Amino acid sequence: MDFVSIRIITGNVARLVEFYEKATGVPATWATEDFAELKTPSATLAIAGTRTVPMFAPGSARPADNHSVIIEFLVDDVDRVHENLTGFVADFVSEPTTMPWGNRALLFRDPDGNLVNFFTPVAPAAIDKFAR
How is domain 1-57 classified at the CATH fold level? Predict the structure, then answer.
Protein backbone atom coordinates (compact mmCIF):
# COMPACT_ATOMS: atom_id res chain seq x y z
CA MET A 1 0.00 0.00 0.00
CA ASP A 2 1.15 3.54 -0.75
CA PHE A 3 -0.10 6.73 0.83
CA VAL A 4 -0.58 9.06 -2.14
CA SER A 5 -2.70 12.04 -1.18
CA ILE A 6 -4.89 13.95 1.19
CA ARG A 7 -8.05 15.64 -0.08
CA ILE A 8 -9.55 18.83 1.29
CA ILE A 9 -13.24 19.43 0.66
CA THR A 10 -14.00 23.13 0.28
CA GLY A 11 -16.82 25.44 -0.62
CA ASN A 12 -14.46 27.50 -2.80
CA VAL A 13 -12.04 25.38 -4.82
CA ALA A 14 -10.48 28.24 -6.78
CA ARG A 15 -9.71 30.26 -3.64
CA LEU A 16 -8.11 27.32 -1.82
CA VAL A 17 -6.12 26.18 -4.87
CA GLU A 18 -4.81 29.71 -5.36
CA PHE A 19 -3.82 29.87 -1.68
CA TYR A 20 -1.87 26.59 -1.79
CA GLU A 21 -0.22 27.43 -5.11
CA LYS A 22 1.05 30.69 -3.67
CA ALA A 23 2.00 29.23 -0.26
CA THR A 24 3.86 26.22 -1.69
CA GLY A 25 5.02 27.40 -5.09
CA VAL A 26 3.54 24.21 -6.57
CA PRO A 27 1.24 24.69 -9.57
CA ALA A 28 -2.09 22.88 -9.52
CA THR A 29 -3.33 20.51 -12.17
CA TRP A 30 -7.06 20.94 -12.70
CA ALA A 31 -9.24 17.95 -13.66
CA THR A 32 -12.56 19.83 -13.43
CA GLU A 33 -13.74 23.07 -11.87
CA ASP A 34 -14.45 21.00 -8.76
CA PHE A 35 -11.13 19.16 -8.47
CA ALA A 36 -7.45 20.10 -8.61
CA GLU A 37 -4.21 18.55 -7.36
CA LEU A 38 -0.88 19.96 -6.22
CA LYS A 39 1.68 17.22 -6.73
CA THR A 40 4.99 17.11 -4.89
CA PRO A 41 7.64 14.39 -5.23
CA SER A 42 6.32 12.56 -2.15
CA ALA A 43 2.55 13.21 -2.00
CA THR A 44 -0.36 15.05 -3.54
CA LEU A 45 -2.69 17.61 -2.02
CA ALA A 46 -6.08 17.24 -3.68
CA ILE A 47 -8.67 19.98 -3.37
CA ALA A 48 -12.28 19.20 -4.21
CA GLY A 49 -15.55 21.07 -4.08
CA THR A 50 -18.61 20.12 -2.10
CA ARG A 51 -20.31 18.88 -5.28
CA THR A 52 -17.89 15.92 -5.28
CA VAL A 53 -18.95 14.66 -1.84
CA PRO A 54 -22.16 12.89 -2.99
CA MET A 55 -20.06 10.86 -5.45
CA PHE A 56 -18.54 9.12 -2.41
CA ALA A 57 -21.32 9.30 0.16
CA PRO A 58 -23.76 12.18 0.64
CA GLY A 59 -22.98 14.19 3.77
CA SER A 60 -19.76 12.31 4.50
CA ALA A 61 -17.53 15.41 4.44
CA ARG A 62 -18.12 19.05 5.40
CA PRO A 63 -15.98 21.95 4.20
CA ALA A 64 -14.08 24.15 6.65
CA ASP A 65 -14.75 21.78 9.55
CA ASN A 66 -11.35 20.17 10.25
CA HIS A 67 -10.30 20.15 13.89
CA SER A 68 -7.83 17.27 13.98
CA VAL A 69 -5.60 17.08 10.89
CA ILE A 70 -2.49 19.15 10.22
CA ILE A 71 -1.28 19.30 6.60
CA GLU A 72 2.53 19.24 6.64
CA PHE A 73 5.13 20.33 4.10
CA LEU A 74 8.89 19.88 4.38
CA VAL A 75 10.64 23.12 3.31
CA ASP A 76 14.30 24.04 2.95
CA ASP A 77 14.22 27.11 5.23
CA VAL A 78 11.12 27.64 7.36
CA ASP A 79 12.27 31.07 8.56
CA ARG A 80 12.64 32.32 4.99
CA VAL A 81 9.25 30.82 4.08
CA HIS A 82 7.71 32.58 7.07
CA GLU A 83 9.09 35.90 5.82
CA ASN A 84 7.68 35.19 2.34
CA LEU A 85 4.23 34.30 3.72
CA THR A 86 4.00 37.34 6.02
CA GLY A 87 1.37 39.64 4.55
CA PHE A 88 -0.18 36.75 2.60
CA VAL A 89 -1.19 34.32 5.34
CA ALA A 90 -3.91 35.87 7.49
CA ASP A 91 -3.75 33.47 10.44
CA PHE A 92 -0.37 32.44 11.82
CA VAL A 93 -0.94 30.09 14.76
CA SER A 94 2.72 30.05 15.79
CA GLU A 95 5.89 31.67 14.54
CA PRO A 96 8.82 29.41 13.59
CA THR A 97 9.64 27.34 16.67
CA THR A 98 12.11 24.51 17.18
CA MET A 99 10.18 21.48 18.37
CA PRO A 100 11.54 18.85 20.83
CA TRP A 101 11.79 16.28 18.00
CA GLY A 102 14.18 18.49 16.04
CA ASN A 103 12.05 20.25 13.43
CA ARG A 104 11.70 24.01 13.17
CA ALA A 105 7.98 24.48 12.52
CA LEU A 106 5.63 27.23 11.35
CA LEU A 107 1.93 26.66 11.95
CA PHE A 108 -0.82 28.63 10.19
CA ARG A 109 -4.36 28.26 8.91
CA ASP A 110 -5.48 28.17 5.29
CA PRO A 111 -8.57 30.19 4.22
CA ASP A 112 -10.85 27.30 5.27
CA GLY A 113 -9.26 27.11 8.73
CA ASN A 114 -7.23 23.94 8.11
CA LEU A 115 -3.96 23.81 10.04
CA VAL A 116 -0.83 23.83 7.90
CA ASN A 117 2.68 23.13 9.17
CA PHE A 118 5.75 24.09 7.16
CA PHE A 119 8.84 22.62 8.79
CA THR A 120 12.59 22.28 8.38
CA PRO A 121 14.62 19.61 10.20
CA VAL A 122 17.35 21.29 12.26
CA ALA A 123 18.55 18.66 14.76
CA PRO A 124 20.90 15.94 13.48
CA ALA A 125 18.37 13.10 13.97
CA ALA A 126 15.63 15.06 12.20
CA ILE A 127 17.97 15.99 9.37
CA ASP A 128 18.92 12.31 8.95
CA LYS A 129 15.26 11.27 9.02
CA PHE A 130 14.36 13.57 6.13
CA ALA A 131 17.62 13.34 4.13
CA ARG A 132 16.81 13.43 0.43
Answer: 3.30.720
Domain limits, CATH 3.10.180.10, in the chain: 66-132
What is the per-residue pLDDT across 33-64, written as a single tens digit (0 to 9) for each?
A: 999 999 999 999 999 999 999 999 999 999 99
Stretch 66-71: mean pLDDT, rounded?
96
Which CATH architecture describes the domain 66-132? Roll (3.10)
* Span between the terminal Cα atoms of the chain, in Å: 22
Which residues on neighbouring strands pair with residue 32, listed in sequence order? 35
In this predicted structure, the answer to whether residue 132 has a pLDDT above a threshold of 90 is no
